[in-house]
């Protein structure tokens, strides 16, 4: 069992897609073991995406991520990190495989509906960024 960190981003929350996205994740063997809704501050968004600081898309990305509430969650399952990325589809929805969340729901490369950790190291960092151990309800991964 593995854990990964997932965000349902502002564009999806705003369009009432929380349920549709969770359905996709759950249908693919991912179980929600922690979740909350919050509205990021600019400082939190800048820190969360610090790895992209200096890239041309960094500032618009931060502004988008603070444009409305998001759902942050911990998903657990077999190969959860790779499975979540597979169900999400690639960053650019026009290049995402058919049937993926981004192909079906994302609006643009930036407003792409979901986030998923890309490695065990980023999953650990991102989970700890938003959750304490006792907020995570699954069995130990
Ligand atoms: P994420 O981290 O959100 O799961 O997405 P990702 O790995 O597929 O994409 P990443 O390269 O980490 O970029 C983080 C987020 O920045 C926005 N972005 N905009 N060219 C652009 O305008 C651009 N490129 C990336 C997206 O919201 C992307 O998910
Ligand atoms: Mg990424």
UniProtKB/TrEMBL annotation:
Any one GO molecular function term: ATP binding
Gene3D superfamilies: Nucleoside diphosphate kinase-like domain
GO biological process, one term: GTP biosynthetic process
Domain Nucleoside diphosphate kinase-like: 1-138
Sorted UniProt keywords: ATP-binding, Cytoplasm, Kinase, Magnesium, Metal-binding, Nucleotide metabolism, Nucleotide-binding, Phosphoprotein, Transferase
Residues annotated to bind ATP: 9, 57, 85, 91, 102, 112
InterPro entries the record matches: NDK-like_dom, NDK-like_dom_sf, Nucleoside_diP_kinase, Nucleoside_diP_kinase_AS
Required cofactor names: Mg(2+)
Organism domain of life: Bacteria
Catalyzed reaction equations: a ribonucleoside 5'-diphosphate + ATP = a ribonucleoside 5'-triphosphate + ADP; a 2'-deoxyribonucleoside 5'-diphosphate + ATP = a 2'-deoxyribonucleoside 5'-triphosphate + ADP
Known function: Major role in the synthesis of nucleoside triphosphates other than ATP. The ATP gamma phosphate is transferred to the NDP beta phosphate via a ping-pong mechanism, using a phosphorylated active-site intermediate.
Matching HAMAP family: NDP_kinase
Subunit (UniProt): Homotetramer.
Protein known as: Nucleoside diphosphate kinase
Annotated source species: Thiosulfatimonas sediminis
Gene this chain is encoded by: ndk
């Amino acid at each position: 069992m593995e854990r990964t960190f997932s965000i349902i981003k502002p564009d999806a929350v705003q369009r009432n897609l929380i349920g549709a996205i969770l359905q996709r994740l759950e249908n693919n063997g991912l179980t929600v073991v922690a979740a909350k809704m919050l509205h990021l501050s600019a400082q939190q968004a800048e820190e969360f995406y610090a790895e992209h600081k200096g890239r041309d898309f960094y500032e618009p990305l931060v502004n988008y991520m603070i444009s409305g509430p998001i759902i942050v969650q911990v998903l657990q399952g077999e190969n959860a990190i790779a499975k979540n990325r597979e169900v999400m589809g690639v960053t650019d929805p026009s290049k995402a495989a058919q049937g993926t969340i981004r192909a079906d729901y994302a609006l643009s490369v930036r407003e792409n509906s979901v986030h998923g950790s890309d490695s065990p190291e980023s999953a650990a960092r991102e989970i700890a960024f938003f959750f304490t151990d006792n907020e995570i309800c699954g069995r130990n991964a």
